[in-house]
Amino acid sequence: MNTPAAPLALPPGQRAILDRVARSQTAPYRQVQRARALLLAADGLPNSRIATQVGVTVVTVRAWRTQFAATGLHDWEQIRPGRGRKPSIPDATIQAIVDTTLHQTPPDGATQWSCRTLARVMEVSPATVQRIWAARGLKPHRVKRFKLSRDPAFEAKLIDVVGLYLHPPDQAVVLCVDEKSQIQALDRTQLALPLTTKHPVTWTHDDKRNGTTTLFAALNVLTGEVLGTCQPRHRHQEYRRFLQQIDRAVPKGLHIHLIVDNYATHKHPAVQQWLSTHRRFHCHFTPTSSSWLNLVERWFRDLTEKAIRRGAFPSVPALIATIERYLAAHNADPKPFEWTATAAEILEKVQRGRVALAQTENQK
Fold first, then answer.
1. 133, 162, 184, 277: least CB-packed within 10 angstroms?
2. Is 17 left (phi over 0), alpha (psi -120 to 50) or beta?
């Protein structure tokens, strides 16, 4: 009988590196196999069992152990040539495809590269471009929207609002308040075709515009309930009436903390005068260009997706009735949104964005 090999001596630092490679989703599969084999060898498993678990031969496991014992991780990035199919695309071509994707614009006036456009330029197949993009996580067709606030009091306002989310005050109600303005009552020019087993719901590409309404909403951060009302316009008069509605709805004796944006209506002198006579109201303004900080915007998105976007409304009253039904259904079983990010985490992310933006501006 063959004597089992002794456990592989593996320093802690090297074990951490091998563990990271073994769990990698992007490293070459041969490196992942090798890392797993060495980790199992360090745990004392026989070479035969290692070969079975990793999916290689016993000879390969012995060769990896011998090579590691001689050189450690010194030549880890070097993959010894095997007898399998050799790469058909040179590394220089792969790097050229990546660099062109990142730093050059298409010659046909388009705003981003497509697989076929880049394949013609690089004289490779579209499938090759797609594989290279997928391996490196490149998605030229996708765009994420962002805007960094230039509010000089950004940090102070951020800490104030996030503090209300994470540590709401006692004997008080925290409400996220905003308007969803100009909600259009759109109707189809023809009846929609219903959902079937082979076809999705089908409706016309054009709409009939039947007027608009504005929804004033206040989201209770603690309970998830939403107080809302529809108004024909969104001036300071309507906003003040909504504040009066909030005043009537919140039990007396509780302070009311309002998280609002910097829309002029919220700072109108008439509104400020009303607030000065209702001392239990406290306004906390989000930084400019930071609507994402107001949780009621998240609820507005649900309203749009679930009740408005796919609806057909022959009139404004029909639209308002739909919004009110959604409000009633939501408040029958409210679920609060959980805010988890701290102010420090957000500030660190914003700082990284500012550095990246500054580097991009310097390159122009």
1. 277
2. alpha
What are φ and ψ of residue 220, in 5° steps?
A: -75, 115
Q: Is the C-alpha dihedral spanning 158, 161, 162, 167 positive or negative?
A: positive
Rounded to whole angstroms, the maximal C-alpha distance in the chain is: 94
Cα separation, 184 vs 211, in Å, equals 6
CA distance 230 to 221: 21
Question: Does 149 fall in a domain?
Answer: no
E runs forming strands in the chain: 172-188, 207-220, 226-231, 255-260, 281-285
For residue 193, the 8-state DSSP code is B
Edge-to-edge strands, sheet with 207-220: 226-231, 207-220, 172-188, 255-260, 281-285
Most trustworthy range by pLDDT among 3-12, 130-139, 275-284: 275-284
What CA–CA distance (Å, rounded) separates 338 from 298?
11
Please indicate, yes or no, whether residues 314 and 208 belong to a single structural domain of this protein.
Answer: yes
For residue 99, what are the domain limits? 91-136
Amino acid at 236: H
CB 284 within 8 A of CB 164: yes
pTM assigned to the model: 0.71
Residues 306 and 336 in one domain: yes
Q: What is the DSSP secondary structure assignment for residue 202, as one 8-state letter? A: B
